[in-house]
Amino acid sequence: MKTDLVEQIKDRLDIVEFIRHYVPGLKRAGKTYKACCPFHQEKTPSFTCSSEKGLFYCFGCQEGGDIIAFLMKIENLSFKEALERLADLAGIEYQSTQPLSGEEQLRANVRQVLNFAREHYHKNFMSRAGEHARTYVKQRGLTKETCLKFELGLSNPGGTDLAQAARKTGYSDEDLKTAGLCASTQYGLRDYFRNRLMFPIINQRGDTVGFGGRILGEGEPKYLNSPETILFTKSHVLYGLNFAGPEIRKAGRAVLLEGYMDVIGCHQAGVAYTVAPLGTSLTEDHARLLKRYTDNVVVLFDPDEAGIKAALRGALILIERGIFVKVASLPEGLDPDEYIIKYGKESFEQILDNAQELIEFHTQLQLKAYQKPLSAQHKTAAVTELSQTIAKQPDEIVRQEWAKYVAEQIGVEEQLVRARVRQVVQSTSFVPQRTKPIVASVSPVGTHNAEEDLLAWVMKSPQHIVLCAELSDTDFSTPALGNLFNALVKARMENPDAQDLTALAQNYAPEQKNEIIKLALLQVPADFEPARDIASCAAKLVAAGINKQLKQIKQKMKAYGTGNVPPEVFQQYVALQNKLKKYRK
Ligand SMILES: [Zn+2]
Fold it and tell me: pTM for the full model?
């Protein structure tokens, strides 16, 4: 039944269309689709997927698998959770009969208690006791509809309001603590949020994962977020994205704002493609999340020193992910919601349309920092600083344009800027990555060699494996590839009717599943002729294997010294030489 469901899901859902929701940049390349990988940072696309095979593979970070593996990895779900979601999407009735695992149960509990809290806070907000909270948001220009839409809430001041209500409903103290809603104190269990305007934090899937609370009246800190829990990681969520997601896709751009109120105000005014990080600076995870929706982001910042710095830092993180970034700020120190109320939506969107390119923004900052005309020393300093930004731009053409712009503005030769950029690229390109090592890729297909080509070809044309009769596992350059070759031979022998060994090979070499998927997605040359190409590639590998053995024997003979070589060693040498002749043309 389980495998049946998996098959049904794969039949009904196209992996390429599914992945496109997360990786909008997917482009056709022959029979497969390619894009920059959502799982690691890269400048040339090495992430590949194929409808025909139902698989994806990244030649950069070696992540690979089927549609279920993709969803598990990108949404951080268990197999069962991923299956449920895909079954739902495919319109397949699916009732899990298996009990939830410990962690799944815990997550389900936390989800439930967070939903309870959201409703409880909202009830408080709408009640008579919520008068002061409603007055506050009204002063900030929010309508009742907006408050309902964002389900704004109120945490009461006492410190036990939520705890008591939750206990009455049957939630345990443990549930409340795990959800980050209450904490044990010397006085007993106490609410984490008190006398605050509550903003439910809802992720892109519509799950409430935590809360942000703004103090009502005096007190510190002004804003407080839920502590991180099993469901809540600050850097994985952008406030407003649950509503903004479809709007961002429609508008073709996203706007990054600073806080909850900015987002709510913009959405109310009809600029709904706006989101904000949760009171933290932008992270790589945020960039990855945004990249699922768009390649264009406008960063709206406070024009003070801290705001400018944060905008620049955030923008650099975004361009590294291949996002085109523009930056803008509002006049008169106005917040977005204030600006829209004063000048209207059109004027606001005009500011977004006229936002500055990142390189312009950064260059103008540099020019402002020095007295004009720039001294040679200041020019060097400025070019060095700006080269850091240019080097982060993954698009070659844009990088050239930027170098040209910087050269003009600073008043130096363009080639000097380009040379400086090259230096930066070279000095940073060997920085060890946080995750798995990344294979430097020369071609967009990623690195592979004749050995991998051969394995890929016989996997797709098993009937031609006979042409590899002379080849043995020791002819391969690594034991892993040799092992894979043996697995393919065995799979072919035991399944003589199989037209494609991709699935079977995984049973014969389960520990090399990823390698197999990679091979399955390698593209064959346009003029591929299985018989001819497999035979000639096998011959080349056999010859390479013989050469390897010859080299070893020659070393041995040298060690014996002239005249002392035992006859059997010499015979071996002659036999190998003769064998090699067969493969030389
Ligand atoms: Zn990757």
Answer: 0.66
